[in-house]
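Notes taken during the Thursday session

The instructor put the following on the board and asked us to keep it in front of us for the whole hour. The protein is Cytochrome c domain-containing protein. We were told not to look anything up and to reason only from what is written here. First, the residues (123 in total):
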Amino acid sequence: QVNALVRYFSYLDQQDFPFVDDVKPKFTKEEYTSAKNLLEQEFQCIKCHIKGNQMPGGSPANWAPNLAMAKKRLKPEWIVKWLLDPQKLLPGTKMPSYFDPASLTAEEQDQIHALRDYILAIE
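Then, after some discussion, the predicted structure tokens were revealed:
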């Protein structure tokens, strides 16, 4: 019965069932380093997020999801929407908004895609 419901919702959302996306982003060494810097230094995502076996500081009650699990749990297009406006997808989330959807620049759009690709490449 669960699969029937999932198939139904997949149909309504015009999504494939089962959800199988084996996304393997391709980076040059420079792109990878730049995206890693965005995540770890500029936006400081690892202050809250677990990254593989790397734990953030502070109380575990305040930790955000493990970014290494994203490739198995999230669709690439959803990650983009989340990074663009987390409050729209989950009002009240602790995830800060770094981008203004109303005035998104080409550079910011590139940053979002770089972050998405880097997150999907985390082991």
